[in-house]
Amino acid sequence: MRENARTRATIWKLAGWIAAACIANGAAVAASPPNVILIYADDLGAGLLGCYGQKIIRTPHIDRLAAEGMRFTNAHGCMYCAPARASLLTGLHDSHRGAWSITQGGLLIQQDQGKLGEEQVEKKLSSTIQAKPGEVFLAQVARRAGYHTAQFGKLDWGFTTTPERLKRHGWDDAFGFLDHVRAHGYYPPYLWRNGEKIPLTGNTHLDAGKTKESGYDSPEATRARRDRNGKAVYSQDVFIESLLQSIEEHRDERFFIYHPTQIPHGPVDVPEVHPDFADDDRLTDVQKEYASMVRMLDDHVGRIMAKLRELDLDRKTMVIFTSDNGHELYYVENKGRGRSRSYHGELDVFKGSMDLAGLKWTNWEGGIHVPLIVRWPGQVPAGSGSDLLTAGYDFMPTFAELMGIEIPDGKDGVSFLPTLLGREQAARDFIVVNHAVLAGRWKLVKEKNRFLLFDLRRDPGERNDVSKEHPDELLRLKKIFDAEVGSPRRDL
Fold first, then answer.
1. Higher pLDDT, 345 or 132
2. What is the CATH number of the domain that holds 188?
């Protein structure tokens, strides 16, 4: 079986290289396409990283990625978790009419509690979870190019997925949570590896030990978070060990690894406070723990990079670091104010949204602006930066071009590979994110029954509506909005 798999992989690789020679609609890729590791952080505002200006939390390993690669300053995810992941995996923007079926969360917890039977869970999923005939997903692009595909963490579809769906999406290996509600805790009783339950001995909480989402600054809440009763194995530690093992096992093949992390999504929980923050008087207990989650994420990036160097895969691997959404406050009470356009980080000791307007759950820039760093030694210019407008749905065409595979028809994304390789690339016409249109310096947002226009070059905080001063731009972006928002998918 192993030889057959390797034979098929070799055939696909040859086919990919032949296809690469025939593709004439973009920048030429390298003669030998790289391995790809995509690290997809959860609710990580760019401002939490040193290379984007963070002053309290040190992130030396992610900062090194930026110093040795390219740092983007105009990248966007989505305002919600599930649409961000669906957009990434399908290559579609999130404003099409009925683009995806987002499933109900918490079903597997209810099943374990005896509140739902297996047949009831299957019935709830069967009407919404089926992929459409001919639908192409991100991992399938990599498989067509002969890559071994694997993901570790918060598995790829919200809010509940199945092993069958993961296979349909193109994953050779998948290890992690099938239920994104359970993934809000860090001590699950078991995880899933390719359809098999893997028990985590010592974890006894069916909700994975999820901590309180309010009142967390009290001494009682701190003691509860730090109580390890029934909380023996931290899931994020399991994921990084499994990811490193996968690199080791597939070192002689070309691989695509997708790591949708849990951290630093809340509610806050971490095995221990990092020494960097233990005696920091600027921070409350919960802020120290949150900062430790960000620092853990950075340490895990460092372990991935060390493994690549150990196996002499460093120059053969493209490493991408980004996030699904903008920043969220998991360590501040009464954070509802952060949903408004008038909020610009006033509640946040870490300034994770970089003083942009709003937070996650909004389509203001604080909710959709994300970090994006790409490193590939010898190909992506070290220490470079780009203000190219990008969206999460651009990864599929970028990977297709990188791997020498024809870009699937009807997708919304645009490859940014020319920019990565230091070549000239025309400015992106526009992107659509959660009923907002961004085009060059301009952003259009529909608020209730009116359209607002912002000049992000002069006003990145979206403080001033300039629709009356620029009626031509307002009309131009409204036409894009009308054509895209609520439109049918074009890929089926």
1. 345
2. 3.40.720.10
